[in-house]
Design goal:
Cation efflux family protein; elongated; about 325 residues; ion transport; membrane; Cation_efflux_CTD_sf; Alpha-Beta Plaits
């Protein structure tokens, strides 16, 4: 139970309990703490990642063509496809910073969900192509690559891992950035497989290693892409974000002194790492006079608790009589 130690003058609170009529507190929405420098920082991460991967793809295409490595050229073409996905995510990141308007009252945060949906499809499709090509090559000899080609693969792995590092921990709760990181990790894994399989084949002659490793990597990348795709679809339907435990949030609200019950609890992902919550809080009118909490303080305190849980957009409505008989009518 959260007990609020708050010294204030206790004014007389007279509430007229007319059937189904409620006193509602007008208040501003809580937007939590959001550092715009981080937004610029991650925008830089997208920009630098796109630049590095464009340069890497060009280098791999050149070396692959000069030394006749079809495997490396295929990896380069795969990277170019992923660069397109990164550009899409970058564009959605920029679009999400546009101010809300009268028509688009939530702004353009949802553009990151759309980008994640498309990127999830690209990741899953790309992984399926890798697995299909690997299966078709199981009975064929693997092309032995020269040292420059192996070095290009190693460079690709390093560049993609460094690109992942640029995003820091921002991808944990942001679907758009998570899709970008999965793109990069998938590219790093493919480059690593090309490098390791080449070394193993050169040392042992086991030509079946390359397609088997490619199937394993493709399966892993495909599963990651499927998770991004399904989570993007869930977000489009305003599902509770996977990292938010709604039962914990409900218990947290009920533990606050002055709140008797809650209903109409809604939690959804606005996009761009912004989680929204709306709820009706029914005041506990049975508290002793020395325990009664001022409405504005109760709202502010509850919003602060939710902000600590990573919920930045909070809209709370106080009620002094449960409205269980009130139903929302939908126009048919």
């Amino acid at each position: 139970m959260y007990h609020l130690d708050h010294n204030h003058s206790h004014r007389s609170h007279n509430h007229d309990h007319v059937s189904h009529n409620h006193n509602h507190i007008n208040h501003r929405h809580s937007h939590g703490e959001y550092n715009h420098d981080h937004k610029d920082e991650y925008g830089d991460a997208f920009r630098q990642t796109v630049m590095f991967n464009c340069g890497l793809s060009g280098l791999q295409l050149f070396i692959g063509a000069v030394f006749g490595s079809l495997a490396l050229m295929s990896d380069a073409i795969h990277n170019i496809g992923d660069v397109m996905g990164l550009v899409l995510g970058w564009g959605a990141e920029v679009l999400s910073t546009y101010e809300a308007s009268k028509r688009f009252s939530y702004g353009f945060y949802r553009s990151t969900h759309l980008a994640s949906l498309i990127n999830g499809i690209l990741i899953f499709t790309g992984a399926a192509v890798i697995v299909f090509e690997a299966i078709s090559r199981l009975g064929e000899p693997v092309e032995l690559m020269s040292i420059p080609v192996a070095c290009a693969s190693a460079l690709g792995m390093v560049v993609n891992l460094l690109s992942v590092r640029m995003f820091g921990d921002s991808h944990k709760h942001d679907l758009n950035r998570r899709a970008a990181v999965i793109h990069l990790l998938g590219d790093a894994a493919v480059s690593m497989v090309v490098l390791l399989s080449t070394l193993i084949v050169l040392l042992t002659g086991w030509e079946w290693i390359d397609p088997i490793a490619a199937i394993l990597v493709g399966t892993f990348v495909g599963w990651s892409g499927w998770k991004v795709l399904t989570e993007a679809i869930f977000s489009m339907f305003d599902a509770v974000p996977s990292h938010i435990n709604i039962d914990h949030i409900e218990s947290l609200l009920l533990s606050v002194t002055g709140i008797e019950s809650i209903h109409e609890l809604r939690i959804w992902d606005l996009g761009n790492s912004k989680i929204a919550l709306t709820a009706h809080l029914v005041r506990d009118l049975n508290l002793a006079k020395n325990q009664f909490i001022d409405d504005s303080f109760l709202i502010a305190y509850t919003q602060e608790l939710l902000n600590r849980e990573g919920i930045s957009h909070v809209t709370l409505q106080l009620e002094f009589d449960p409205c269980y008989l009130i139903h929302t009518a939908e126009t048919k």
